[in-house]
Write a structure and sequence with these properties.
The chain is mostly helical. It has 18 helices and two strands. A hairpin with a 2-residue loop joins β1 and β2.
Length: 595
């Protein structure tokens, strides 16, 4: 009888715990008053929609500026093609590397919500300064064709403004996206499934901002004035900031946990100190956090790779055990060791996706500049701005993301049994195939354009329609829908929970590093080809050989794709995450990945 009563009490207790988990969110997040959040009134889509609105606004501003930047630099600042392309690449590189600093500050000290507020304010100041540089008479540019030198005052304020926008983006991008993903509880099955869709719909909103940026904003720049376009962007950004703040009661917040890099350094120091110790044959003998301390923290179980680091979790019998337990520089937990392994394992993926980023860099520089030389008339006297052709990349990405979410994922789920449809790295790899195709198509189109120029030097390529560029923009857009979205999900999901803003920053740094390498590659190719007779990069497009450069990029990307496939096939996913219950440390290498 007593046994039956005990079983009934245990059943009631389990049901009570389950009901509490349905009512409350117990994933270490808090509400705007610092309390455990109610599941029904916080997070998920009701919070994410506010966050996607401000992302739409930021992408509207960014692409409205970025896609026409090379045109502005050559027209108003009077830079030559090669210098303008490098300037765009440097700015894009800084803009996409700054999130490494912003993501670190968000995870370690400020928290994601506060970082978004501060960085968006800096972004807004940059837009205001940019507007002033085109409105205030003493700061206005010299737009006259007779003016061959830029006005130094305008040049200084202009570059200060766009690099202020870079700083704002540095905090905005990693914090906002990870803050949006934080609105979904990984340990709640329904919310976890919604989270898989979040990155797709996040990019759908991003593409809508991109689409309006390269059509409406670029049209205003081309037909009305640059100042009017900047004023519109400033007002939209200010409005979206108000909307973002209005969603404060619905958000779930994560408190900053201190530097995520310090625990990794502690693991490395502890492992070096214990380099002469022998690893136990059973991983359960390694040190892990006691059960009483893990009620709201997820643990990682042991994996077989990078065994040297496991020595950091050995409790040395020859030393005082209490002192070791109190000193993280002498003893680490299995979870801390595995977190360092996760970061190390992302490095080969980061490196092998850089060539994809180099291909993307061409879309905002040489692809746009090609559009300037082509016939952009659609009907009668209506002529589309050169940068608006970039809208096709957004269309390609929207088509790709929508078809993937609504058609491919349901079909592939049934076919593979994987809740994602295909693995994250497979998704990234598919997009990289599209990047190779983009460069091949771009090389063929540029060759055709040059043939027309040689046949009719006076008219140039003005008789060739700008829509010859449509295939390369559409293909790169479709590739973005696979690779860029995949990289966002990968670097958010596969890094430790304490550094998810930094994880998003790592994804952005792929594009940033690629922009710098693209500039370096232009310099190297220019130097080598100039020595051999004629540089591939002349004063303008008609005296350049961009088709050769595109073939070079296609070759580099194709070779890199083979390396990526090898790396991806040997990658171990972060499949070994336990929930908020503590179990014995176990070896997880043989578990099937569902990521």
């Amino acid at each position: 009888m007593d046994k039956i009563n005990i079983e009934m009490e245990q059943t009631k207790k389990a049901e009570s715990v389950e009901n509490d988990e349905q009512k409350w969110v117990c994933d270490s997040s808090v509400d705007h008053k610092g309390r455990v959040p109610l599941r029904d009134s916080t997070g998920v889509w009701k919070a994410s929609l506010f966050i996607i609105v401000i992302e739409f606004s930021e992408r509207l501003s960014y692409f409205g500026l970025a896609t026409s930047l090379i045109i502005y630099l050559t027209k108003a600042i009077h830079q030559d093609l090669k210098t303008a392309a490098k300037s765009v690449n440097y700015w894009s590189g800084v803009t996409t590397l700054m999130p490494l600093l912003g993501g670190f500050l968000a995870d370690a000290y400020l928290g994601r919500f506060s970082t978004v507020l501060v960085s968006t304010t800096v972004y807004l100041l940059g837009l205001l300064l940019l507007t002033m540089s085109r409105v205030v008479p003493s700061l206005k540019p010299c737009d006259s064709d007779l003016c061959h030198e830029p006005r130094k005052a305008h040049e200084a304020i202009f570059f200060l403004a766009i690099y202020l926008i870079s700083v704002g983006t540095g905090g905005h991008k990693p914090s906002l996206e990870s803050f949006g993903a934080d609105q979904f509880d990984d340990d709640h099955p329904a919310e976890k499934k919604k989270k898989m869709s979040f990155f797709n719909w996040w990019n759908f909103g991003l593409c809508c901002g991109l689409l309006l940026g390269v059509t409406l904003i670029v049209y205003v720049q081309d037909r009305v004035s640059w100042a009017m376009a900047d004023l519109i962007l400033t007002l939209v950004m200010a409005s979206s900031l108000v909307i973002f703040i209005a969603g404060r009661p619905f958000y779930r917040y994560r408190k900053a946990t201190g530097s995520p890099l310090t625990p990794m350094l502690q693991v490395l120091v502890a492992a070096i100190r214990k380099r002469n110790l022998h690893l136990p044959s059973n991983p359960s003998h390694l040190h892990e956090i006691p059960k009483s301390e893990t009620s709201r923290r997820r643990l990682l179980c042991h994996t077989k790779k990078l065994k040297f680091l496991d020595k950091a979790a050995i409790l040395d019998d020859k030393q005082d055990s209490i002192e070791q337990l109190q000193n993280p520089w002498k003893l680490a937990t299995v979870t801390k060791v595995e977190e360092l392994k996760l970061v190390i394992n992302t490095t080969p993926i980061w490196l092998t996706t850089i060539p994809f980023g180099i291909c993307i860099a061409q879309a905002a520089t040489f692809f746009i500049k090609q559009g300037v030389t082509l016939n952009r008339k659609i009907v009668h006297n209506f002529e589309i701005p050169p940068a608006s052709i970039f809208a096709l990349a957004a269309v390609g990405m929207i088509i790709s993301v929508t078809m993937y979410e609504k058609i491919l994922v349901p079909v592939l789920r049934r076919a593979t049994g994987n809740e994602r449809g295909i693995s994250i790295l497979q998704r990234i790899g598919i997009g990289m195939i599209f990047s190779v195709s983009t460069m091949i198509v771009a090389a063929l189109v540029e060759r055709k354009r040059l043939n027309i120029v040689h046949e009719n030097p006076l008219e140039g390529s003005a008789s060739m329609s700008v829509f010859w560029l449509a295939p390369q923009f559409l293909i790169i857009g479709i590739g973005d829908g696979f690779t860029l979205v995949g990289l966002q999900e990968y670097f958010y999901d596969q890094v430790p929970d304490s550094m998810r803003s930094l994880g998003i920053a790592l994804y952005l740094s792929v594009i940033g590093a690629a922009n710098f390498i693209s500039s370096l590659l232009i310099t190297i190719v220019d130097h080598i080809t100039e020595k051999s007779g004629k540089s591939w990069f002349g004063k303008d497009l008609n005296s350049s050989r961009l088709d050769y450069f595109y073939w070079l990029l296609a070759t580099i990307t194709a070779v890199n794709l083979c390396v990526y496939v090898f790396v991806a096939r040997n990658y171990s996913y972060k499949k070994n995450v336990h929930g908020r219950t503590t179990i014995a440390v176990a070896d997880c290498d043989d578990r099937e990945a569902v990521a």
